[in-house]
Write a sequence for this structure.
């Protein structure tokens, strides 16, 4: 098997919590990311999903070394890049780029679009001023903007256009891996589709690998090859998209999937939303971190933390009872009642007429 | 390509107005710019413009009111032509103001950026030193420096620079800390640029509005403070014309010959006002978000 492009093992970020004004002492640790391992192959999209505060964005920034990890290793093309600094690190940054969530904050308002897109090339000494200008025009047309946009400032663009500028900036140095930190969650739904399709298109053309952070499972279902589900700083399930969506092994993944809204009135009342809140990452519950909200929790879950265990064919889940859980609950795809199906058919005929 | 969505823009971008033409759209800014150019021009060309020598005294003309023959603005207590004194005084005052705001401001701004950028290591040490400096009144610093270097214009410039550094550092650090938290700084870091490029290309330009407001306000204050130091005898020494010193010389005759004190004060007032208005307008003209 080919070597993964990015290989992350045991990545962790712990923030000390200090109290006291003069003699500050550490009273706790926020385990924002706590031992995360995954790998991304060349040209592949790994989606990282989970609810707010589960450590998705922190993981993304750790991979890029925008935050220093507390533990773990990051390997890029087999080389350990966890501790490199200075010029070696700056050179490394060319290979991994990032697209941010908020297109209104991620562009320097003082720089024109041309300067913004050309800057990474200038930093890495790619080409001269003239060739960079040409490349900027290429990139603009690649992301669906026009060449006269180059001389404008970010505030003259809409959110979707700005996100395209951000993507052009990330692509300017021809990276191998692009970390997309919720790249579409700040955009309108119609624009989301355009940007997601643009990202897919660029991936096909340049063989990019994406680490795609998202909380919108519909987007994930569209873009991802593999999906990793995070809960409270840990990956609880990882697997191929089709497999994971069709046959989720972890109760949390099931809850997430069940929470996707479906336009199906029959479904009302059949989905039990998860009760309770995410426990504090300062004081995660003992045993399985999910046991406080898990409908299947047993005594063993309260005392013994489950490790990620391989299921079938690259699918891994961190649940003691992954194999013995009842089959993934309600299958809504064919769940229409006969009456509803008849009515829908009637509508379809009426529209066709 | 599905993503190639046309934008509803005109195909040709309209020509962008330059900074100057944007600046001149505001009548207040245009007037203040003219005043500033006039003042600087007068100071630079003082030796050519002045009708007489600034040290030429003629006691027979002492305290002549404005409008006397050959003395459009009158003469001071020593009978020196006030126009000549003003032109040369403007030179000294403006130079003092520029030099100390430039020196103090750039050192202060650099320290402020360093404190904000390397918050973990440098913020504490730099800002505590700034707090120490801030606790000395400018006049006291002036006294101390005059004691070391002897009274004179250089001492005033040094004292005012030293008094400007902590103020600038505080203001720059404050706005830099806000900018540091924005995504585009992280984006810039993610491209792999050096810290120096990050500071000067991404951090500093976005702190400019705070710097501009402060520099223009400070310029006025510094000219006033310089005048105060001259008044105390620490700055420009008597025969040298300096606006503040001239005003203080004139105060003894405020009742008999008010013009000796009032005219330099009006000039100081004009300088301060013109620079403040210009600074405000320049900040707006330099901000791309306010362009249209």
């Amino acid at each position: 098997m080919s070597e993964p492009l990015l290989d992350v093992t045991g990545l962790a970020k712990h923030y000390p919590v200090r109290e006291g004004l003069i003699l500050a002492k550490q009273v706790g640790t926020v385990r924002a990311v706590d031992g995360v391992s995954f790998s991304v192959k060349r040209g592949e999209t790994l989606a990282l999903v989970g609810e707010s505060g589960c450590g998705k964005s922190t993981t993304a920034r750790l991979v890029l070394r925008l935050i220093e990890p507390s533990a773990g290793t990051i390997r890029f093309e087999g080389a350990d890049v966890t501790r490199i600094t200075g010029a070696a690190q700056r050179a490394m940054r060319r290979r991994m780029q990032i697209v941010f969530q908020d297109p209104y904050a991620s562009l320097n308002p003082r720089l024109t679009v041309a300067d913004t897109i050309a800057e990474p090339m200038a930093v890495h000494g790619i080409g001269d001023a003239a060739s960079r200008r040409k490349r900027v025009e290429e990139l603009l047309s690649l992301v669906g903007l026009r060449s006269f946009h180059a001389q404008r400032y970010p505030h003259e663009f809409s959110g979707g256009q700005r996100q395209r500028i951000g993507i052009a900036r990330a692509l300017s140095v021809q990276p191998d891996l692009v970390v997309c930190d919720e790249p579409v969650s700040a955009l309108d739904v119609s624009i989301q589709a355009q940007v997601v399709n643009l990202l897919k298109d660029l991936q096909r053309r340049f063989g990019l690998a994406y680490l795609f952070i998202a909380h919108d499972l519909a987007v994930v279902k569209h873009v991802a090859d593999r999906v990793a589900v995070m809960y409270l700083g840990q990956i609880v399930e990882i697997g191929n998209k089709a497999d994971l969506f069709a046959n989720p092994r972890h109760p949390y993944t099931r809850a997430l999937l069940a929470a996707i809204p479906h336009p199906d009135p029959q479904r009302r009342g059949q989905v039990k939303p998860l009760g309770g809140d995410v426990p504090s990452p300062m004081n995660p519950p003992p045993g399985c971190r999910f046991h406080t909200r898990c409908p299947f929790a047993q005594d063993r879950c309260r005392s013994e933390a489950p490790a990620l265990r391989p299921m079938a064919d690259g699918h891994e889940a961190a649940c003691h009872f992954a194999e013995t859980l009842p089959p993934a609950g309600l299958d809504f795809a064919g769940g229409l009642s006969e009456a509803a199906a008849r009515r829908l058919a009637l509508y379809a005929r009426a529209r066709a007429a | 390509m599905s993503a190639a969505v046309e934008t509803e823009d005109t195909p040709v971008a309209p020509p962008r107005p330059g900074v100057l033409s944007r600046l001149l759209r505001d009548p207040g800014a245009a007037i203040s710019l003219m005043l500033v150019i006039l003042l600087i021009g007068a100071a630079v060309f003082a030796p050519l413009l002045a009708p007489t020598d600034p040290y030429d005294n003629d006691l027979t003309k002492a305290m002549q009111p404005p409008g006397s023959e050959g003395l459009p603005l009158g003469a001071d207590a020593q009978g020196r032509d006030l126009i000549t004194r003003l032109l040369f005084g403007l030179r000294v005052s403006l130079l003092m103001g520029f030099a100390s705001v430039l020196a103090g401001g750039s050192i202060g701004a650099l320290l402020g950026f360093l404190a904000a950028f390397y918050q973990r290591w440098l913020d504490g040490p730099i800002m505590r030193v700034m707090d120490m400096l801030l606790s000395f009144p400018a006049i006291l610093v002036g006294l101390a420096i005059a004691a070391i270097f002897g009274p004179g214009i250089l001492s005033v410039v040094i004292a005012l620079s030293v008094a400007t550094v902590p103020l600038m550092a505080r203001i720059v650090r404050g706005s830099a800390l806000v900018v540091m938290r924005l995504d585009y700084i992280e984006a810039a870091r993610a491209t792999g640029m050096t810290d120096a490029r990050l500071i000067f290309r991404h951090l500093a330009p976005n702190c400019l509005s705070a710097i501009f407001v402060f520099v223009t306000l400070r310029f006025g204050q510094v000219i006033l403070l310089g005048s105060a130091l001259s008044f105390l005898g620490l700055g420009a020494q008597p025969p040298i014309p300096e606006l503040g010193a001239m005003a203080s010389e004139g105060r003894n005759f405020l009742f008999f010959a008010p013009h000796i004190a009032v005219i330099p004060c009006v000039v100081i007032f004009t300088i301060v006002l013109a620079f403040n208005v210009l600074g405000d307008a320049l900040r707006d003209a330099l901000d791309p978000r306010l362009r249209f």
